[in-house]
Protein backbone atom coordinates (compact mmCIF):
# COMPACT_ATOMS: atom_id res chain seq x y z
CA UNK A 1 0.00 0.00 0.00
CA UNK A 2 1.26 3.49 -0.85
CA UNK A 3 1.43 5.95 2.04
CA UNK A 4 2.04 9.68 2.08
CA UNK A 5 3.17 11.63 5.17
CA UNK A 6 3.42 15.41 5.34
CA UNK A 7 5.62 17.03 8.02
CA UNK A 8 6.01 20.74 8.63
CA UNK A 9 9.05 22.18 10.45
CA UNK A 10 10.07 25.51 11.83
CA UNK A 11 13.11 26.60 9.85
CA UNK A 12 15.09 27.78 12.91
CA UNK A 13 14.94 24.30 14.43
CA UNK A 14 16.72 22.95 11.39
CA UNK A 15 19.47 25.51 11.35
CA UNK A 16 20.14 24.97 15.07
CA UNK A 17 20.13 21.21 14.72
CA UNK A 18 22.53 21.32 11.83
CA UNK A 19 25.44 21.09 14.28
CA UNK A 20 24.80 17.36 14.81
CA UNK A 21 26.12 16.69 11.31
CA UNK A 22 29.61 17.51 12.49
CA UNK A 23 29.70 14.42 14.66
CA UNK A 24 30.30 10.79 13.90
CA UNK A 25 29.91 9.14 10.52
CA UNK A 26 28.18 11.91 8.64
CA UNK A 27 31.06 14.40 8.94
CA UNK A 28 33.08 12.80 6.13
CA UNK A 29 30.29 12.97 3.54
CA UNK A 30 29.22 16.46 4.55
CA UNK A 31 32.66 18.05 4.35
CA UNK A 32 32.99 18.26 0.55
CA UNK A 33 29.46 19.62 0.40
CA UNK A 34 30.28 22.30 2.95
CA UNK A 35 33.40 23.16 1.02
CA UNK A 36 31.37 23.69 -2.16
CA UNK A 37 28.75 25.70 -0.36
CA UNK A 38 31.39 27.89 1.26
CA UNK A 39 32.12 29.15 -2.26
CA UNK A 40 28.85 31.02 -2.12
CA UNK A 41 30.03 34.40 -1.02
CA UNK A 42 27.14 35.81 0.95
CA UNK A 43 28.57 39.29 0.74
CA UNK A 44 28.79 39.30 -3.05
CA UNK A 45 25.01 39.12 -3.18
CA UNK A 46 25.29 37.61 -6.62
CA UNK A 47 22.46 35.15 -7.10
CA UNK A 48 23.56 34.26 -10.64
CA UNK A 49 26.87 32.91 -9.24
CA UNK A 50 25.35 31.18 -6.22
CA UNK A 51 22.61 29.25 -8.03
CA UNK A 52 24.79 26.95 -10.18
CA UNK A 53 26.73 25.99 -7.02
CA UNK A 54 23.56 25.21 -5.09
CA UNK A 55 21.94 23.25 -7.91
CA UNK A 56 25.24 21.42 -8.56
CA UNK A 57 25.50 20.35 -4.90
CA UNK A 58 21.89 19.20 -4.94
CA UNK A 59 22.35 17.16 -8.10
CA UNK A 60 25.86 15.72 -7.65
CA UNK A 61 26.40 15.42 -3.89
CA UNK A 62 22.89 15.01 -2.55
CA UNK A 63 21.80 12.89 -5.54
CA UNK A 64 18.58 14.84 -5.82
CA UNK A 65 16.61 13.96 -8.96
CA UNK A 66 14.60 17.15 -9.34
CA UNK A 67 15.47 20.47 -7.80
CA UNK A 68 14.21 24.01 -8.15
CA UNK A 69 14.67 27.46 -6.72
CA UNK A 70 11.48 29.49 -6.78
CA UNK A 71 11.11 33.22 -6.23
CA UNK A 72 8.09 34.93 -4.77
CA UNK A 73 6.82 38.19 -6.24
CA UNK A 74 4.73 39.57 -3.38
CA UNK A 75 3.16 42.31 -5.56
CA UNK A 76 1.53 39.91 -7.98
CA UNK A 77 1.34 37.11 -5.39
CA UNK A 78 2.95 34.70 -7.84
CA UNK A 79 5.60 32.07 -7.19
CA UNK A 80 7.66 31.00 -10.18
CA UNK A 81 10.54 28.68 -10.94
CA UNK A 82 13.70 30.74 -11.32
CA UNK A 83 16.15 27.90 -11.89
CA UNK A 84 15.84 24.14 -11.85
CA UNK A 85 17.09 20.76 -13.01
CA UNK A 86 15.35 17.49 -13.78
CA UNK A 87 12.02 19.13 -14.57
CA UNK A 88 10.12 18.36 -17.76
CA UNK A 89 10.22 21.13 -20.37
CA UNK A 90 6.49 21.76 -19.94
CA UNK A 91 6.87 22.18 -16.15
CA UNK A 92 9.70 24.66 -16.65
CA UNK A 93 7.77 26.63 -19.29
CA UNK A 94 4.63 26.67 -17.17
CA UNK A 95 6.80 27.95 -14.32
CA UNK A 96 5.24 25.53 -11.89
CA UNK A 97 5.96 22.05 -10.67
CA UNK A 98 2.65 20.24 -10.50
CA UNK A 99 3.61 17.10 -8.52
CA UNK A 100 4.46 19.15 -5.41
CA UNK A 101 0.69 19.49 -4.91
CA UNK A 102 0.80 23.08 -3.65
CA UNK A 103 3.62 22.43 -1.14
CA UNK A 104 5.70 25.36 -2.41
CA UNK A 105 2.76 27.73 -1.95
CA UNK A 106 2.36 26.43 1.61
CA UNK A 107 6.02 27.00 2.41
CA UNK A 108 5.80 30.57 1.08
CA UNK A 109 2.63 31.19 3.04
CA UNK A 110 3.78 29.75 6.36
CA UNK A 111 7.56 30.27 6.19
CA UNK A 112 8.01 26.70 7.42
CA UNK A 113 9.80 23.81 5.75
CA UNK A 114 7.61 20.99 4.51
CA UNK A 115 8.60 17.38 3.87
CA UNK A 116 6.25 15.10 1.98
CA UNK A 117 7.26 11.47 2.25
CA UNK A 118 5.78 8.90 -0.03
CA UNK A 119 6.25 5.21 0.57
CA UNK A 120 5.43 2.68 -2.12
CA UNK A 121 6.80 0.30 -4.74
CA UNK A 122 10.07 -1.53 -4.25
CA UNK A 123 13.60 -0.33 -4.68
CA UNK A 124 14.22 -2.09 -7.96
CA UNK A 125 11.07 -0.77 -9.48
CA UNK A 126 12.07 2.75 -8.60
CA UNK A 127 15.61 2.09 -9.77
CA UNK A 128 17.02 3.37 -6.50
CA UNK A 129 18.96 0.36 -5.34
CA UNK A 130 19.47 -3.03 -6.88
CA UNK A 131 20.83 -4.51 -3.63
CA UNK A 132 18.22 -3.53 -1.10
CA UNK A 133 14.85 -5.16 -0.97
CA UNK A 134 13.41 -2.60 1.43
CA UNK A 135 10.57 -0.43 0.27
CA UNK A 136 11.54 2.84 -1.32
CA UNK A 137 10.59 6.18 0.15
CA UNK A 138 10.52 9.15 -2.11
CA UNK A 139 10.31 12.62 -0.67
CA UNK A 140 9.62 16.11 -1.89
CA UNK A 141 10.90 18.71 0.54
CA UNK A 142 10.84 22.43 0.36
CA UNK A 143 12.52 25.05 2.55
CA UNK A 144 11.76 28.77 2.60
CA UNK A 145 14.28 31.48 1.71
CA UNK A 146 13.66 34.03 4.45
CA UNK A 147 15.18 37.46 4.92
CA UNK A 148 14.14 40.01 7.56
CA UNK A 149 11.21 37.72 8.39
CA UNK A 150 9.90 37.89 4.83
CA UNK A 151 9.66 34.82 2.60
CA UNK A 152 11.39 35.56 -0.71
CA UNK A 153 11.19 32.13 -2.31
CA UNK A 154 11.93 28.47 -1.75
CA UNK A 155 14.37 25.68 -2.51
CA UNK A 156 12.59 22.45 -3.36
CA UNK A 157 13.92 18.98 -4.06
CA UNK A 158 12.71 15.51 -4.80
CA UNK A 159 14.55 12.20 -4.48
CA UNK A 160 14.32 8.61 -3.41
CA UNK A 161 15.51 7.79 0.15
CA UNK A 162 16.43 4.48 1.70
CA UNK A 163 17.62 6.10 4.93
CA UNK A 164 15.41 8.61 6.80
CA UNK A 165 18.43 10.22 8.51
CA UNK A 166 19.85 11.19 5.13
CA UNK A 167 16.61 12.93 4.28
CA UNK A 168 16.80 14.90 7.50
CA UNK A 169 20.38 15.94 6.76
CA UNK A 170 19.44 17.07 3.27
CA UNK A 171 16.60 19.21 4.56
CA UNK A 172 18.98 20.74 7.11
CA UNK A 173 21.57 21.45 4.46
CA UNK A 174 19.09 23.13 2.15
CA UNK A 175 17.70 25.16 5.03
CA UNK A 176 21.22 26.42 5.72
CA UNK A 177 21.85 27.18 2.04
CA UNK A 178 18.52 29.03 1.86
CA UNK A 179 19.52 31.27 4.76
CA UNK A 180 22.93 31.90 3.13
CA UNK A 181 21.49 33.06 -0.19
CA UNK A 182 18.59 35.03 1.30
CA UNK A 183 20.40 38.43 1.11
CA UNK A 184 21.29 37.76 -2.55
CA UNK A 185 17.71 36.84 -3.35
CA UNK A 186 16.46 39.99 -1.61
CA UNK A 187 18.80 42.14 -3.69
CA UNK A 188 17.97 40.28 -6.89
CA UNK A 189 14.24 40.78 -6.38
CA UNK A 190 14.74 44.47 -5.58
CA UNK A 191 16.84 45.12 -8.67
CA UNK A 192 15.06 42.86 -11.12
CA UNK A 193 11.47 42.92 -10.01
CA UNK A 194 10.19 44.17 -13.38
CA UNK A 195 12.36 41.74 -15.34
CA UNK A 196 11.32 38.87 -13.10
CA UNK A 197 7.65 39.73 -13.59
CA UNK A 198 8.02 40.12 -17.36
CA UNK A 199 9.88 36.83 -17.70
CA UNK A 200 7.27 35.06 -15.65
CA UNK A 201 4.48 36.64 -17.71
CA UNK A 202 6.20 35.76 -21.00
CA UNK A 203 6.62 32.17 -19.85
CA UNK A 204 2.98 31.99 -18.75
CA UNK A 205 1.77 33.40 -22.08
CA UNK A 206 3.97 31.00 -24.06
CA UNK A 207 2.60 28.05 -22.10
CA UNK A 208 -0.99 29.27 -22.60
CA UNK A 209 -0.42 29.73 -26.35
CA UNK A 210 1.16 26.32 -26.63
CA UNK A 211 -1.89 24.83 -24.96
CA UNK A 212 -4.29 26.85 -27.12
CA UNK A 213 -2.63 25.91 -30.38
CA UNK A 214 -2.31 22.20 -29.79
CA UNK A 215 -3.46 20.57 -33.06
CA UNK A 216 -6.14 18.88 -30.95
CA UNK A 217 -7.58 22.35 -30.30
CA UNK A 218 -8.24 22.77 -33.99
CA UNK A 219 -11.79 21.53 -34.08
CA UNK A 220 -13.07 19.09 -36.69
CA UNK A 221 -12.60 15.40 -37.46
CA UNK A 222 -13.62 15.31 -41.13
CA UNK A 223 -11.36 13.41 -43.52
CA UNK A 224 -10.01 16.59 -45.20
CA UNK A 225 -9.08 18.02 -41.78
CA UNK A 226 -7.42 14.77 -40.71
CA UNK A 227 -5.24 15.09 -43.80
CA UNK A 228 -4.28 18.58 -42.60
CA UNK A 229 -3.43 17.28 -39.08
CA UNK A 230 -1.24 14.57 -40.61
CA UNK A 231 0.70 17.15 -42.58
CA UNK A 232 1.09 19.39 -39.49
CA UNK A 233 2.45 16.42 -37.53
CA UNK A 234 4.92 15.55 -40.28
CA UNK A 235 6.35 19.01 -40.83
CA UNK A 236 6.03 20.74 -37.41
CA UNK A 237 9.23 19.26 -35.98
CA UNK A 238 11.32 20.34 -38.99
CA UNK A 239 12.36 23.87 -39.87
CA UNK A 240 11.04 23.60 -43.45
CA UNK A 241 9.26 26.58 -44.97
CA UNK A 242 5.51 25.95 -45.06
CA UNK A 243 2.96 27.57 -47.38
CA UNK A 244 -0.61 27.41 -46.07
CA UNK A 245 -3.27 27.75 -48.75
CA UNK A 246 -7.03 28.13 -48.47
CA UNK A 247 -9.96 30.52 -48.66
CA UNK A 248 -10.36 33.35 -46.22
CA UNK A 249 -11.48 32.29 -42.73
CA UNK A 250 -10.68 28.55 -43.05
CA UNK A 251 -8.20 28.62 -40.16
CA UNK A 252 -4.85 29.20 -41.88
CA UNK A 253 -3.53 31.31 -39.00
CA UNK A 254 -4.56 28.58 -36.55
CA UNK A 255 -2.55 26.06 -38.57
CA UNK A 256 0.47 28.40 -38.60
CA UNK A 257 0.27 28.71 -34.81
CA UNK A 258 -0.04 24.94 -34.42
CA UNK A 259 3.08 24.48 -36.58
CA UNK A 260 5.10 26.85 -34.42
CA UNK A 261 3.89 25.90 -30.95
CA UNK A 262 4.21 22.17 -31.65
CA UNK A 263 7.47 22.34 -33.51
CA UNK A 264 11.17 22.96 -33.35
CA UNK A 265 10.80 26.71 -32.81
CA UNK A 266 8.20 26.56 -29.99
CA UNK A 267 10.52 28.06 -27.37
CA UNK A 268 11.32 31.05 -29.58
CA UNK A 269 9.12 33.98 -30.60
CA UNK A 270 6.25 33.73 -33.10
CA UNK A 271 5.90 36.96 -35.06
CA UNK A 272 2.96 37.55 -37.39
CA UNK A 273 3.08 40.07 -40.21
CA UNK A 274 -0.04 40.73 -42.26
CA UNK A 275 1.45 41.58 -45.65
CA UNK A 276 -1.87 42.95 -46.96
CA UNK A 277 -1.93 45.57 -44.22
CA UNK A 278 1.55 46.91 -45.05
CA UNK A 279 1.61 50.07 -47.19
CA UNK A 280 4.33 49.79 -49.87
CA UNK A 281 6.54 52.52 -48.35
CA UNK A 282 6.47 50.94 -44.84
CA UNK A 283 6.61 47.27 -45.78
CA UNK A 284 10.39 47.09 -46.03
CA UNK A 285 10.99 48.77 -42.68
CA UNK A 286 8.27 46.67 -41.03
CA UNK A 287 9.77 43.40 -42.25
CA UNK A 288 13.49 44.17 -42.18
CA UNK A 289 13.74 47.13 -39.78
CA UNK A 290 15.55 50.44 -40.23
CA UNK A 291 18.62 52.24 -38.91
CA UNK A 292 18.29 55.39 -36.86
CA UNK A 293 18.03 58.44 -39.17
CA UNK A 294 17.58 56.36 -42.34
CA UNK A 295 14.51 58.44 -43.28
CA UNK A 296 12.51 61.33 -41.83
CA UNK A 297 10.83 60.01 -38.73
CA UNK A 298 13.31 57.16 -38.19
CA UNK A 299 14.20 58.48 -34.73
CA UNK A 300 15.64 55.23 -33.44
CA UNK A 301 16.89 51.89 -34.68
CA UNK A 302 13.90 49.63 -35.37
CA UNK A 303 14.13 45.86 -35.50
CA UNK A 304 11.81 44.44 -38.16
CA UNK A 305 9.66 41.31 -37.95
CA UNK A 306 12.48 39.05 -39.17
CA UNK A 307 14.84 40.20 -36.44
CA UNK A 308 12.12 40.01 -33.80
CA UNK A 309 11.46 36.42 -34.88
CA UNK A 310 15.13 35.38 -34.62
CA UNK A 311 15.28 31.94 -32.99
CA UNK A 312 11.57 31.39 -33.65
CA UNK A 313 9.16 31.64 -36.56
CA UNK A 314 7.69 34.40 -38.73
CA UNK A 315 4.19 34.06 -40.15
CA UNK A 316 3.77 36.01 -43.37
CA UNK A 317 -0.01 36.17 -43.71
CA UNK A 318 -1.45 37.10 -47.12
CA UNK A 319 1.99 36.80 -48.71
CA UNK A 320 0.39 37.14 -52.18
CA UNK A 321 -0.19 40.84 -51.47
CA UNK A 322 3.52 41.78 -51.31
CA UNK A 323 4.85 44.10 -54.01
CA UNK A 324 7.41 42.78 -56.51
CA UNK A 325 10.22 44.82 -54.92
CA UNK A 326 9.56 43.39 -51.43
CA UNK A 327 9.21 39.93 -52.97
CA UNK A 328 12.82 40.30 -54.25
CA UNK A 329 14.04 41.12 -50.73
CA UNK A 330 12.07 38.26 -49.23
CA UNK A 331 13.63 35.90 -51.74
CA UNK A 332 17.09 36.91 -50.51
CA UNK A 333 16.16 36.14 -46.89
CA UNK A 334 14.84 32.76 -47.96
CA UNK A 335 18.02 31.99 -49.88
CA UNK A 336 20.69 33.46 -47.59
CA UNK A 337 18.92 34.01 -44.24
CA UNK A 338 20.26 37.55 -44.17
CA UNK A 339 19.15 41.06 -45.10
CA UNK A 340 19.98 44.72 -44.47
CA UNK A 341 17.89 47.10 -42.43
CA UNK A 342 16.59 50.14 -44.36
CA UNK A 343 19.50 52.62 -44.40
CA UNK A 344 21.90 49.92 -43.20
CA UNK A 345 24.99 48.55 -44.87
CA UNK A 346 25.75 45.66 -42.54
CA UNK A 347 23.95 42.37 -43.28
CA UNK A 348 21.85 41.04 -40.39
CA UNK A 349 21.77 37.25 -40.07
CA UNK A 350 18.73 35.50 -38.63
CA UNK A 351 17.70 31.97 -37.76
CA UNK A 352 13.98 32.02 -38.51
CA UNK A 353 11.43 29.47 -39.66
CA UNK A 354 9.20 30.90 -42.38
CA UNK A 355 5.51 30.09 -42.51
CA UNK A 356 3.49 31.90 -45.19
CA UNK A 357 -0.21 31.87 -46.06
CA UNK A 358 -2.40 33.13 -48.84
CA UNK A 359 -5.94 32.81 -50.14
CA UNK A 360 -4.71 33.74 -53.64
CA UNK A 361 -3.79 31.33 -56.42
CA UNK A 362 -0.04 31.99 -56.48
CA UNK A 363 0.58 29.79 -59.53
CA UNK A 364 -1.87 31.93 -61.50
CA UNK A 365 -0.21 35.09 -60.18
CA UNK A 366 3.15 33.75 -61.39
CA UNK A 367 1.67 33.29 -64.86
CA UNK A 368 0.29 36.81 -64.82
CA UNK A 369 3.69 38.12 -63.69
CA UNK A 370 2.45 39.55 -60.37
CA UNK A 371 4.31 37.01 -58.20
CA UNK A 372 7.96 35.99 -58.67
CA UNK A 373 8.33 32.45 -59.86
CA UNK A 374 11.59 31.86 -57.92
CA UNK A 375 9.94 33.07 -54.70
CA UNK A 376 6.92 30.87 -55.35
CA UNK A 377 9.12 27.77 -55.54
CA UNK A 378 11.07 28.81 -52.42
CA UNK A 379 7.82 29.22 -50.47
CA UNK A 380 6.05 26.20 -51.88
CA UNK A 381 8.41 23.68 -50.25
CA UNK A 382 5.69 22.13 -48.12
CA UNK A 383 2.19 23.33 -49.04
CA UNK A 384 -0.75 22.62 -46.73
CA UNK A 385 -4.21 23.33 -48.15
CA UNK A 386 -6.90 23.97 -45.55
CA UNK A 387 -10.28 22.90 -47.01
CA UNK A 388 -13.27 25.26 -47.11
CA UNK A 389 -15.94 24.64 -44.45
CA UNK A 390 -18.54 23.51 -47.03
CA UNK A 391 -16.32 20.49 -47.79
CA UNK A 392 -15.95 19.41 -44.17
CA UNK A 393 -19.39 17.76 -43.66
CA UNK A 394 -20.33 17.31 -40.01
CA UNK A 395 -17.45 19.55 -38.86
CA UNK A 396 -20.01 22.37 -39.16
CA UNK A 397 -21.92 20.89 -36.23
CA UNK A 398 -18.80 20.08 -34.19
CA UNK A 399 -17.52 23.62 -34.70
CA UNK A 400 -20.95 25.12 -33.97
CA UNK A 401 -21.12 23.18 -30.67
CA UNK A 402 -17.59 24.29 -29.82
CA UNK A 403 -18.43 27.95 -30.44
CA UNK A 404 -21.71 27.63 -28.49
CA UNK A 405 -19.68 26.44 -25.48
CA UNK A 406 -17.11 29.25 -25.89
CA UNK A 407 -19.60 32.07 -26.34
CA UNK A 408 -21.97 30.77 -23.65
CA UNK A 409 -19.09 31.00 -21.20
CA UNK A 410 -18.07 34.41 -22.51
CA UNK A 411 -21.63 35.77 -22.22
CA UNK A 412 -22.45 34.00 -18.92
CA UNK A 413 -25.23 31.98 -20.57
CA UNK A 414 -26.16 28.31 -20.26
CA UNK A 415 -27.06 27.36 -23.82
CA UNK A 416 -27.60 23.59 -23.87
CA UNK A 417 -28.29 22.74 -27.50
CA UNK A 418 -28.99 23.83 -31.05
CA UNK A 419 -32.52 22.98 -32.25
CA UNK A 420 -32.97 20.57 -35.17
CA UNK A 421 -34.26 23.20 -37.63
CA UNK A 422 -31.31 25.44 -36.72
CA UNK A 423 -28.88 22.54 -37.26
CA UNK A 424 -30.47 21.87 -40.66
CA UNK A 425 -29.96 25.48 -41.61
CA UNK A 426 -26.31 25.42 -40.49
CA UNK A 427 -25.69 22.22 -42.45
CA UNK A 428 -27.25 23.37 -45.70
CA UNK A 429 -25.68 26.84 -45.83
CA UNK A 430 -22.65 27.20 -48.15
CA UNK A 431 -20.45 29.23 -45.74
CA UNK A 432 -18.60 31.61 -48.09
CA UNK A 433 -16.89 33.18 -45.04
CA UNK A 434 -15.92 29.72 -43.71
CA UNK A 435 -15.19 29.10 -40.00
CA UNK A 436 -14.91 32.83 -39.27
CA UNK A 437 -18.48 33.35 -40.54
CA UNK A 438 -19.76 30.35 -38.53
CA UNK A 439 -18.04 31.72 -35.41
CA UNK A 440 -19.75 35.10 -35.88
CA UNK A 441 -23.16 33.48 -36.59
CA UNK A 442 -22.95 31.43 -33.38
CA UNK A 443 -21.77 34.38 -31.29
CA UNK A 444 -24.78 36.41 -32.47
CA UNK A 445 -27.23 33.56 -31.87
CA UNK A 446 -25.89 32.91 -28.35
CA UNK A 447 -26.49 36.57 -27.53
CA UNK A 448 -30.00 36.46 -29.02
CA UNK A 449 -31.05 33.17 -27.44
CA UNK A 450 -33.52 33.57 -24.60
CA UNK A 451 -34.14 30.01 -23.48
CA UNK A 452 -30.88 28.06 -23.45
CA UNK A 453 -31.53 26.76 -27.00
CA UNK A 454 -30.30 28.15 -30.32
CA UNK A 455 -33.39 28.26 -32.53
CA UNK A 456 -33.63 28.71 -36.29
CA UNK A 457 -34.98 32.23 -35.68
CA UNK A 458 -31.81 33.12 -33.72
CA UNK A 459 -29.75 32.64 -36.90
CA UNK A 460 -29.12 35.61 -39.19
CA UNK A 461 -31.28 36.34 -42.28
CA UNK A 462 -28.49 35.19 -44.65
CA UNK A 463 -29.17 31.62 -43.53
CA UNK A 464 -32.96 31.92 -43.61
CA UNK A 465 -33.83 30.76 -47.13
CA UNK A 466 -36.23 27.85 -47.70
CA UNK A 467 -33.51 25.64 -49.15
CA UNK A 468 -31.06 26.34 -46.38
CA UNK A 469 -33.55 26.16 -43.54
CA UNK A 470 -34.73 22.77 -44.77
CA UNK A 471 -38.15 23.64 -43.33
CA UNK A 472 -41.44 23.81 -45.16
CA UNK A 473 -41.67 27.50 -44.42
CA UNK A 474 -41.00 30.16 -47.04
CA UNK A 475 -39.15 33.46 -46.71
CA UNK A 476 -42.08 35.86 -46.27
CA UNK A 477 -42.73 37.49 -42.92
CA UNK A 478 -45.75 35.24 -42.49
CA UNK A 479 -43.62 32.12 -43.07
CA UNK A 480 -40.95 33.23 -40.65
CA UNK A 481 -43.56 33.91 -37.96
CA UNK A 482 -44.94 30.42 -38.50
CA UNK A 483 -41.43 28.95 -38.15
CA UNK A 484 -40.98 30.77 -34.86
CA UNK A 485 -44.45 29.72 -33.67
CA UNK A 486 -43.74 26.08 -34.54
CA UNK A 487 -40.49 26.04 -32.61
CA UNK A 488 -41.98 27.74 -29.56
CA UNK A 489 -44.83 25.24 -29.40
CA UNK A 490 -42.44 22.29 -29.68
CA UNK A 491 -40.22 23.72 -26.93
CA UNK A 492 -43.15 24.37 -24.58
CA UNK A 493 -44.49 20.84 -25.09
CA UNK A 494 -41.05 19.41 -24.42
CA UNK A 495 -40.71 21.37 -21.18
CA UNK A 496 -44.20 20.34 -20.01
CA UNK A 497 -43.71 16.68 -20.96
CA UNK A 498 -46.60 16.85 -23.44
CA UNK A 499 -49.15 18.46 -21.04
CA UNK A 500 -51.16 20.79 -23.26
CA UNK A 501 -52.48 22.81 -20.30
CA UNK A 502 -49.00 23.59 -18.93
CA UNK A 503 -47.61 24.30 -22.40
CA UNK A 504 -50.51 26.65 -23.17
CA UNK A 505 -49.90 28.48 -19.88
CA UNK A 506 -46.21 28.90 -20.70
CA UNK A 507 -47.08 30.29 -24.13
CA UNK A 508 -49.81 32.60 -22.80
CA UNK A 509 -52.52 30.80 -24.80
CA UNK A 510 -55.71 28.95 -23.89
CA UNK A 511 -55.74 25.15 -24.29
CA UNK A 512 -58.09 25.52 -27.23
CA UNK A 513 -55.90 28.10 -29.01
CA UNK A 514 -52.84 25.86 -28.57
CA UNK A 515 -54.82 22.82 -29.76
CA UNK A 516 -55.79 24.63 -32.99
CA UNK A 517 -52.18 25.59 -33.69
CA UNK A 518 -50.88 22.10 -32.92
CA UNK A 519 -53.37 20.69 -35.37
CA UNK A 520 -52.31 23.20 -38.02
CA UNK A 521 -48.66 22.05 -37.70
CA UNK A 522 -49.48 18.37 -37.30
CA UNK A 523 -47.94 18.26 -33.78
CA UNK A 524 -49.14 15.53 -31.42
CA UNK A 525 -48.78 15.90 -27.65
CA UNK A 526 -48.08 12.15 -27.46
CA UNK A 527 -44.65 12.62 -28.99
CA UNK A 528 -43.65 14.56 -25.88
CA UNK A 529 -44.63 11.96 -23.29
CA UNK A 530 -42.18 9.50 -21.65
CA UNK A 531 -40.19 7.41 -24.12
CA UNK A 532 -41.33 9.48 -27.06
CA UNK A 533 -39.92 12.70 -25.64
CA UNK A 534 -36.62 10.95 -24.96
CA UNK A 535 -36.57 9.91 -28.61
CA UNK A 536 -37.38 13.50 -29.65
CA UNK A 537 -34.52 14.81 -27.53
CA UNK A 538 -32.13 12.19 -28.85
CA UNK A 539 -33.03 13.21 -32.40
CA UNK A 540 -32.36 16.79 -31.48
CA UNK A 541 -29.05 16.15 -29.73
N1 LIG B 1 -10.77 24.29 -37.00
C1 LIG B 1 -10.99 25.35 -36.22
N2 LIG B 1 -11.28 25.17 -34.92
C2 LIG B 1 -11.55 26.22 -34.12
N3 LIG B 1 -11.56 27.49 -34.54
C3 LIG B 1 -11.27 27.73 -35.83
C4 LIG B 1 -10.96 26.69 -36.73
N4 LIG B 1 -10.69 27.21 -37.93
C5 LIG B 1 -10.82 28.53 -37.79
N5 LIG B 1 -11.18 28.86 -36.54
C6 LIG B 1 -11.44 30.23 -36.05
O1 LIG B 1 -11.98 30.96 -37.17
C7 LIG B 1 -11.41 32.25 -37.21
C8 LIG B 1 -10.70 32.46 -38.53
O2 LIG B 1 -9.55 31.64 -38.57
P1 LIG B 1 -8.15 32.16 -39.17
O3 LIG B 1 -7.93 33.60 -38.87
O4 LIG B 1 -7.12 31.19 -38.77
O5 LIG B 1 -8.49 32.03 -40.73
P2 LIG B 1 -7.58 32.43 -41.99
O6 LIG B 1 -7.74 31.31 -42.94
O7 LIG B 1 -6.21 32.75 -41.52
O8 LIG B 1 -8.31 33.73 -42.52
P3 LIG B 1 -7.72 34.92 -43.47
O9 LIG B 1 -7.31 34.27 -44.76
O10 LIG B 1 -8.88 35.82 -43.62
O11 LIG B 1 -6.58 35.52 -42.70
C9 LIG B 1 -10.49 32.39 -36.02
O12 LIG B 1 -11.18 33.01 -34.95
C10 LIG B 1 -10.17 30.95 -35.66
O13 LIG B 1 -9.88 30.81 -34.29
UniProtKB/TrEMBL annotation:
It comes from the Bacteria. Keywords: Activator, ATP-binding, DNA-binding, Nucleotide-binding, Transcription, Transcription regulation, Two-component regulatory system. The lineage of its organism: Bacteria, Pseudomonadati, Pseudomonadota, Alphaproteobacteria, Hyphomicrobiales. One of its GO terms (biological process) is regulation of DNA-templated transcription. Residues 218-447 form the Sigma-54 factor interaction domain. Signal peptide: none annotated. This is GAF domain-containing protein. The keyword Nuclease does not apply. Pfam families: AAA_lid_14, GAF, HTH_8, Sigma54_activat. GO terms for molecular function: ATP binding; sequence-specific DNA binding.
Amino acid sequence: MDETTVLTFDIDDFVEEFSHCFTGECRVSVLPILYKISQINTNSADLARALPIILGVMRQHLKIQRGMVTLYDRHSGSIFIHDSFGLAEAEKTAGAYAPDGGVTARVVETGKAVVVQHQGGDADAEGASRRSSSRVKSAFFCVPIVHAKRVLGTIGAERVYMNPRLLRQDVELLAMVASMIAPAVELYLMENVDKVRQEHEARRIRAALKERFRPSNIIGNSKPMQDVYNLIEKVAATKATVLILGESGVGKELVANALHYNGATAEGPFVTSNCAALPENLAESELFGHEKGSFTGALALHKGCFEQADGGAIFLDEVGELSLSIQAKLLRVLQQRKFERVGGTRPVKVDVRIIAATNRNLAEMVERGTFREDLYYRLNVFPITVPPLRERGADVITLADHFVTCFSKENAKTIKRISTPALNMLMSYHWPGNVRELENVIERSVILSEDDVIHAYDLPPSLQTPNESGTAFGVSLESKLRAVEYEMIVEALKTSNGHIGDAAKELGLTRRMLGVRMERYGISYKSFRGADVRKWNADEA
